[in-house]
Amino acid sequence: MGKLILLLLILLSWLQYSLWLGKNGINSFYRINSDLKLQKEYNSILKERNEKLLSRINDLNNSDEILKEPNTQ
Predict the structure, then answer these.
(1) Where, in residue ranges, is this chain on the Periplasmic side (predicted)?
(2) Staple 22 to which of 18, 33, 55, 62, CB 3.0 to 4.6 Å?
(3) Domain ranges in the chain?
(4) Quick one: pLDDT at residue 1?
């Protein structure tokens, strides 16, 4: 009976170690979640910049003015 309890305690300890400090444990989850938030913020900044650039491109394409190079005669 004592060996069974010892085996179960070792198994429980190993499971707890894996949960808290293992490769896909709680620490990894929080780190990845933090990285995800930063990436979403960066993506929103880039999306806003891209929208401004597309708007500028559309303005240039739909402009009635014709851009001409100055004559250097």
Answers:
(1) 22-73
(2) 18
(3) 2-59
(4) 86
Angle of CA points 11, 16, 18, to nearest 5° = 95
Q: Is the dihedral of CA 38, 40, 45, 49 positive or negative?
A: positive
Residue 68, token pair as written in the block: 């001409």
CA gap 60, 63 in Å, rounded: 5
pLDDT greater at residue 6 or residue 65: 6
CA 62 to chain centre: 36
3-state class (DSSP) for residue 17? helix
Can you tell me the distance from the alpha carbon of 35 to that of 29, in angstroms, rounded to the nearest whole number? Answer: 10
